[in-house]
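Box S1 | Example of a co-folding query
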Amino acid sequence: MGEAWPWPGRLAFGADYNPEQWTPATQDEDLDLMVEAGVNLVTLAVFSWSRLEPEPGVFDFEWLDRVIDRLWSRGVHVDLATATATPPAWLVRRHPEVLPVTADGTQLEFGSRQTYCPSSPIFRQHAVRLSRELARHYRDHPALALWHVSNEYGDELSRCYCDVSTERFRAWLQHRYSDLAALNQAWGTDVWGQRYSQWGQIAAPRKTAAPVNPAQRLDFERFSSDELIELLRAEVAVLRAECPNVLVTTNFMGLFRDVDYWRMADSEDVVSNDAYPDPADAASHVSAALGFALMRSLKPSTPWLLMEQAPGAVSWRAVNAVKPPGQMRLTSLQALAHGADGIMFFQWRASRAGAERFHSALVGHRGPVGRTWSEARDLGRELRGLGEIAGSRVIADVGLLVGWDSWWALDAGEALPSVRFSWLEQVRVWHEALFRLGITVELVNPDCAQFDHRMLVAPNLFLQSAEQAERLERYVESGGHLVVGPFSGVVDETNAVHLGGAPGPLRDLLGVTVDEWCPLPDEESQVVAYAGAKLDAVSWTESLERTTATVAGTYERGWLAGRPAVTVNRVEKGSARYISLVAPTADLEVLLRDALESAGIKARAQSSADVEFVTRRGAHATYLFVLNHTANVVDVDVPTPSVDMLTGRREEHTMTLLPRGAAVLRSTVQTNQEQRCV
Ligand code: GAL
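Box S1 (continued) | Returned holo structure for beta-D-galactopyranose
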């Protein structure tokens, strides 16, 4: 009998499988090879709509029945896609309005993938119809472990500017603002003479002569994200109605700008993620860690699944670097360390034809030989030995506040004090500083009802509402420690500037007011004197006025010399720090190390991005993952004598990790309870 995923005591291992690209003989071989590699879950039918419904209303599930039955005869479960990631040719030819339109008015052609307008009622209706048919057909199949809705929503196309989208945008705005006067007020349409006297005058923000209205653009980002979420919801509703016992997922893409994953994750049961760190980037494991942290934070009480990663090279970068030996295993173990209960790949067998023919696969064009294949089999074996980790949870003391509204509001790239201030870059640098200090973070939604981490770090809160600020105040008053980065508390929900000076509704909490933002041109830098050290400010500084905060660091150069750069405000039982500069990672580490210390959180003595420690706690044991992200042999201290589950060896005092090596140290000593946002 099959079981729905997640599986207690067992990790998932498998790949996207596209049998329709292969002959029956090759499919036979696939089954044997899957058993040999220990594959227990495959994703099927992601791009199979045109096969499953070759003509309108004519369904052909026979070929898929055969595949699923045969997989199941070998004990392989199925993560069954709803196949709606790409509409079939007949659909777009019958209804050309399904084809999306870009901001410059170009209608995109069929012949690639994901060529549909997310707002198209025709597309939605057909997608739901196909999902319903599939759910009715497969709901009792014992192989069915999980539903995989669509694929990477918004990846190829997330914003459509066609007439249908424009109509839906207007309806969305009517729902949000009720009357036009409220919209004119919220969008500040008196600036540049943009007042609307009828709803029908409002358009999606297509290409304009000069910068588009920032409130309009922000609402369009929200609307477009909502439309993709609506699409997911529509399919999920029929799957749940027809097949209530099988959980539903859709694969995410780490920290992806175009969809608010806090909201999208609410509409699925299981979070899954696709991760493609660039092997040519020596720091890509740090951004992978950030994406993994987001995944486990979206649904803290359920494990997530690494749905896709490349076994070797991808085929969509300018230069597609190969993963060196051991890298595929290390990234897989890193995902496990961060709470994944399954490791999957794109894809099982490398395609001969089509746009991804140069993408790596577990079984390459040479067949089941070569380095990747042998690493895949080893990984399958190793994962079988780690089954007891399934269901355990990651321990994180620090919350990293990350909200899509600030990202969208700030990410305009035009009409801002500086184009060099990047929301994503700030989040990455602040996360990297914490990573180097050995801190495992949980990502926290700024709209969370209550904050529970001992320390909250906000790299940027550009958009800050009064309600959000109030919750942060309550958090700090009750003993929380908050650190806020530059250019925060600037605008409200409508992207209009808070009067009275930044950080707007956070002024009292932080005890400072910004008099002026002082972005730095490329050739200029600034120095900050902080606790006996000299720290660099790059690209961004601010002229601050202190109200109740204590000054912890001051600018040194030019007319800002002597003015506050870093401040600490003690508020009842907690503290609120403001860092007004953009600092390089190493300097940010100095600032964050102090903040951690005053929150009573221990940072690593020696900063390092090379060796990562992450702990998962289970009912009976704790698992410390130690990951060597370098190409060198490294010695690490073993905090508690314990057995490495990967080697079976007992490790004490220090242990040696091979290049790209790892250890999973199992101990029955329980660590302290972590705190989280509920
Ligand atoms: C993902 C996608 C897969 C495959 C993969 C290649 O974005 O979901 O279908 O195209 O990239 O790296």
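The first helix runs from residue 24 to 37. The chain has a mean pLDDT of 96.
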